[in-house]
Amino acid sequence: MIKGLTLLSTRIKQKVNSALLTERCVSCLAPTTDHGLCAACRSDLPANTPACPRCALPLPDSATGLCCGDCLRDPPPFARARIPWRYEFPVDRMIGRYKYQGQRKYGRPLMAGLARHLEEALAREPDCRPEALIAAPMHPARRRQRGFNQAQDLAEYLGRALDLPVLRGRVHRTRRTPTQRGLDRAGRLANLNDSLTLTGEPPASVAIVDDVVTTGATARALASLLKSAGTQRVELWALARTPAPVSPRPHPAVTPPAEQWPDWR
Ligand SMILES: [Zn+2]
Ligand SMILES: [Zn+2]
């Protein structure tokens, strides 16, 4: 009996501790958090401003309000991109842990922040509200390898937060494309050529959801496909955008130094 109670109290203590710990900031361990990130760490996230209003490419301060050269030369098939952060520290580490190590608690603060960002944007521009969301596709083999599709996970989260339907199982990669990492934009477009197919008729306005936009090649390919199937307006929503130009270098390690990213579990 006593033994049983001791066991029970230990279990309760463990539960209470783990409940308290899950309320701590994923970056600095401060106890007060907003979806897993404290106010100070949230305000330190690298905001994607100024950025190209069309594709959200990060731009220097001197280019505020201007479109990037790519969009001027070759306008993308999506009307605009809404991407609140730059793919820099600590956003890159947070997404890396979420995406490659399946630690959703690192993705959650960013997902909640993106939902808030979109909510505010759509309140200002209600005509831009899409009829449905669609996740950037991932090849099933890669999904099996990773265990989940982070773009689909993000689309489902945003669908619930913004009360928008999510289109599922409508886009497929018809053959496995080598990883996009390390390829320049032309390489990525060639890599994606003919690899996407769409089933059924898409709605008139759709937002494509992805975690990180690098060259925008996947979004361009999917937006073109949607438009050729009858969609009138496409937006691109993502957590983070990489700065240009993209140099073909190996992906940075996703495991940061222990002192910066304590893991208390
Ligand atoms: Zn913090
Ligand atoms: Zn642009």
TrEMBL record:
Q: What is this protein called?
A: Double zinc ribbon domain-containing protein
SUPFAM superfamilies linked to this entry: PRTase-like
**Matches recorded under InterPro entries:** ComF/GntX_DNA_util-trans, DZR_2, PRTase-like, PRTase_dom
Coiled coil residues, start to end: none
Residue ranges annotated as compositionally biased, kind Pro residues, are: 245-255
Locate the region Disordered. 243-265
Q: Which residues form the Double zinc ribbon domain?
A: 19-72
State the similarity comment: Belongs to the ComF/GntX family.
- Sorted alphabetically, which Pfam families does this protein's record hold? DZR_2
User: Organism classification, top ranks?
Assistant: Bacteria, Pseudomonadati, Pseudomonadota, Gammaproteobacteria, Pseudomonadales
Tell me which species this is from. Marinobacter lutaoensis
